[in-house]
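Usage

Read records sequentially. Each one opens with the input sequence:
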Amino acid sequence: MNNTANKPAVASSTITRDLRELDVKTDNIYESIVIMAKRANQISNNVKEELHQKLSEFASSNDNLEEVFENREQIEISKHYEKMPKPSLVAVQEFLEDKIYYRNPNKE
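and closes with the structure output:
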């Protein structure tokens, strides 16, 4: 997820939203929330998988607690992921910018 140059800035903390803004596309606030929640779960799973792949490079085969050491690169990777916006905030931003594809088979 290093393509931050073309991504709009996502708020790093929660902000107050107008609920009428969220149900414009679906005409149902609950449906909008479900869409955003499912997208947030997708983002969270992708970030978690990416982080585990990067950190697995640092895993040692020796499980001796006395030999655990801090790796500066590992710490920097962890700090980078901690500073990333929360998946729910990214999902709301994507929803408001029409970047999420969704469909409701019951409405079709």
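Summary fields computed downstream for this record:
- DSSP finds four helices and no strands in the chain.
- Confidence is low (pLDDT under 50) at residues 1-6.
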